[in-house]
Amino acid sequence: MTAQPSPRTVALAKPKQDFGKNQCRSLFLYSCGRESTIWERPLLTDFGLPSDRLLKLSESKKYQAAYLQQRPRQSPEWPISAAALSYKASPRILELARPKALHPEFLLAREVPTQVTNVAALARASLRLQRLAEPRVRKVTCCYERSFPEAVICPVSKLAQEAIASPRTLELARAKRLHPDYVPLRDAEWPVTKAAKHTVATPRLVELAQPCRRPPMGSAQFNPDAFTVKETAKKATCSPRIQELARPIKR
């Protein structure tokens, strides 16, 4: 309790000096981490003319001569020579510089054919016009009112129920007949007769019923005589017809 702060502690405990002269910051002047208040805008009388230093700093930076000679193509400024300024355009350049003319048959946008007057725009429709402007109500024929279950879905008039069909109508109402030679599809399971059950196959049928015997793949692949050519085949002579068919097609 009797300790005395050092001069360094006293110097660090002093608040930071506010160097602002025309700043209105009544609250949170020495805020440590807290948000500061919004500064109030001073009156226009507090502002004077800019100093010479501010005017000098506000001037745009001038380009150097080396940059003007080596600047890229996308630069907006390009030096124009005296020859280009005093150049007289040729008739061809003047002709190309003219804007594109409109087509001879070009027509401007037409004006509104009918101008609505103020009296017509502010007019009120009569009851007759409002009635005629209503959409036409058509009777719905795809749906009918619900009735007792025994009734038909579509109501039939009494005259239609008592009508007598003509011979032509009866003829057209008949179903299409099948062809006289039409044979219906057979059942999946055919009945077998007793004679077919007690029949005995002939030797020829037994011979034909035997499966075809083929040599095994092992002996067929390693057959030494698989690619031998017979002597009669070596001495064979092609006929003129075979030579004609053996020629490639000319396209």
As a percent range, the share of helical residues equals 25-40%
Total strands: the figure is 0
Class from secondary-structure proportions? mainly alpha
How would you spell out the order of helices and strands?
A: HHHHHHHHHHHHHH
| Radius of gyration over all CA atoms, rounded | 57 Å
Report on the structure:
By secondary structure, this protein is mainly α. It contains 14 helices and no strands. The longest helix is centred in the N-terminal third of the chain and has 7 residues. The relative contact order is 0.02. The mean pLDDT is 80.
Which key features would you list for this structure?
single chain, 251 residues, mainly alpha, extended
Topology overview:
Blueprint: H1 7-13, H2 52-57, H3 65-70, H4 82-85, H5 91-97, H6 118-121, H7 127-133, H8 158-161, H9 167-173, H10 194-197, H11 203-209, H12 217-221, H13 231-234, H14 240-246
Outline of this structure?
By secondary structure, this protein is mainly alpha-helical. The chain contains 14 helices and no strands.
